[in-house]
Amino acid sequence: MSFKRSLTAVLALCMVFTGTLTGCDTDRTDPLDNTDSNLPKVQDISVDEAKDLIDRNTNSTEFVILDVRTPSEYAQGHIAGAVNLDYYASFENSLFALDKNKTYLVYCRSGNRSVSASQLMVDNGFTSIYNMLGGINVWIANGLPLAT
């Protein structure tokens, strides 16, 4: 076999190998791609949308308002009917006690903890999560009522 033929064969093999590594097979899915539209996702909603959601589900046993602030923050005022589950006090370990099939509206003071808490819930198999953007601060700024 001549050097030219050997080089051609090696180059051809390299092209095939490179094509495999660069994903020429377009029918494959990336196992790390979690953008599948069938997976549950957190739905971010405004305070006004959260108020509408609460009003529509006032008597529903399948709807839970989840306040993830500390107990002292909760005691200063919270959305009526909200359950307090402190994000900083083993929130993730407490998720086993919640029904994964219910609908949850999650909020905190400003919206940071609720984002993390909501994502943890989705990651743990919860299927219907709404995150209230801006938290209780925006709720109060919009003149909405608090319970104490």
Protein architecture, described:
The protein has 148 residues and is of the alpha/beta class. It has a domain of 100 residues: Rhodanese-like domain (Oxidized Rhodanese, domain 1, 3-Layer(aba) Sandwich). It contains six helices and five strands, in the order αβαβαβαβαβα. Strands 1-5-4-2-3 form a five-stranded parallel sheet. Strand 4, helix 5 and strand 5 form a beta-alpha-beta unit. The radius of gyration is 25 Å and the shape is globular.
Can you tell me the CATH superfamily of the domain at 42-141?
Answer: Rhodanese-like domain
CATH architecture of the domain at 42-141: 3-Layer(aba) Sandwich
| Beta content | 5-15%
- Describe the largest sheet: 5 strands, parallel
- Taken from the alpha-carbon principal axes, the silhouette is globular
Give the C-alpha Rg: 25 Å
- Biggest sheet, strands in spatial order? 1-5-4-2-3
What would the average pLDDT be, to the nearest integer? 83
CATH topology of the domain at 42-141: Oxidized Rhodanese, domain 1
The DSSP helix count reads 6
Q: Would you list the SSEs in sequence order as H and E?
A: HEHEHEHEHEH
Class based on secondary structure composition and strand pairing: alpha/beta
Any idea of the CATH class of the domain at 42-141? Alpha Beta
**Span between N and C termini?**
88 Å
**Percentage of residues assigned to helices:** 25-40%
Question: Using DSSP, what is the number of strands?
Answer: 5
